[in-house]
Amino acid sequence: MGDEKEVKNDEKTEKGLKSKKKKKGILGRIWSSLFRLGSGDDFEKRLQYITKEEGSIVMRMKRRAMRWRRTARNLIIFSVLIELVAIGYAIMTTRTVDMEWRMRSLRVLPMFLLPALSFALYYGLQSFTKFCDRRDQKTLEKLRAERQTKIDELKERTNYYITQQLIQWKSLFLLVLMPFYTGGVDFIVTGSWHKFI
């Protein structure tokens, strides 16, 4: 009994889904193909994807810059502290007068080696960060160029430039007609020029 009710409910939901999904008729398909209404969604989706990707790249660059500043500060502080420890170690271990010069140089070596290692680590991290920033900047420029080409292509498809020229010509035509309008100054003050548009 319970299984029959579940089957009936499943059939009802399938019928409900089929009835909700409206198919296009012949005239709708012709209209869409003539005016390419379906391709506008592709432009919109692509532009949304480009905008989303651009935002994520910009945020990634900001996070990387903040992380680099924090890492550089911590690296410098850590290097100074370790250098102070190395100097203290060199002073404490080389106090004896009867120490051989090779042993003395080995105990003093960390005092000179640690700054070089710190500099190499700092320089390597800085180079890697700049490399990642350059790569993201190139990707960002590509996305912006692609977005601009998509916008230009959309403007061409929707006759944006022609419409803009018609509006400019119409406004120029109205400016030429304005002196001959019987309202005179009333034409400018009351804004009755909208009758011509």
From TrEMBL:
Could you tell me where the Basic and acidic residues compositional bias lies?
1-17
Q: What is this protein called?
A: Transmembrane protein
Q: Which InterPro entries match?
A: Lnp
Q: Name one GO cellular component term.
A: endoplasmic reticulum tubular network
The protein's UniProt keywords, in alphabetical order, are: Membrane, Transmembrane, Transmembrane helix
Entry superkingdom: Eukaryota
Source organism of the structure = Artemisia annua
Q: Where is this region: Disordered?
A: 1-21
Task: Indicate the transmembrane segments per the record.
Answer: 71-92, 104-125, 172-193
Q: What GO biological process terms are annotated to this protein in UniProt?
A: endoplasmic reticulum tubular network organization
